[in-house]
Amino acid sequence: MTKRGRWAQHPELLRERSRDGVIRASDLECLEMSSRTIYTRCLPGGPWQRLLPGIILLHNNEPTSEQLVTAGLLHGGADAVLTGIEACRLHGLRPTAMPPDMGLHLLIPHDRKIRSTGFVTMERTIHLPTPIIRHGFPLAPLIRATTDTARRLGDVEQVEAILIEAVQKGGCHPKALLRELDSGSLRGSAVPRRLLTNWVDLRSMAESRARILSQRMPVPPSHWNAAIHDRRGRYIGRPDALWDDVGLVWEIDSFEFHFRKSDYARTVERNTRYAAAGLVVVQTLPFRLRDDPDGVLADLTAAHDVASARPRPDIHLSTAA
Asked: Which of 67, 100, 151, 284 has the fewest CB atoms in 10 Å of its CB?
């Protein structure tokens, strides 16, 4: 009679020793399961599957993203930290803002020598961040995870999308992202550095995207960031964009983008001044510039038609800072 290990008499031990069905082959061997039995069960058509060298999934269905992360962290060892796209997702950034799947990206101490394999890229670093535990996983802080993602992307639009999402949804300030880029390797940093530098200089990061979108209009704005005064010289506002000949202003505003509630109060006061001066105002939330650009253009075109049908308000402007 063939002798079978504890796992056969107590199959519940398999689940107890695993995390969400993911387990090391060495832990299975501790339950008196032979390596031959383990890998026979992982053959095509078998009940299990091998995710990474020495990492087993105790079913043969498609693994979930959480099971893949668990497998990657087991492969990386006790000090491994998840960064990159999957860390951004677990921090709460929207999957729709993420680039196509690039596999998992893990950080390990510089003195550790663990090779990349399968869907896992291992990066040795002397700047291993203190992990933040989310959903039970050790994640690089969002600023680090975002810059690690941006460095590996070659497409400018994908870099822009992940940086915008980190700023608007994740609350990362462009200056903080720039500091993180400065503290690491120069490899892959040129595109994100250029974008972030522009956003730090502009009043609003979303204005960068608005400038590009406005070029699709039949009549683009005549001025950007020009201070408007009434006929008595009293300050009205400094809109993101202005069509001076018809008295149309465009503001890109978002309560979630501003960092203080006082910013929102000032926005309300500013729009009241615009209305009192007879200006037509279009106010756009930053996410619409990305998700509904055609709708934004339709709003601006309709507002331009309304403004054109009215006498121009008696306003004066200055481009001085």
From this structure: 100
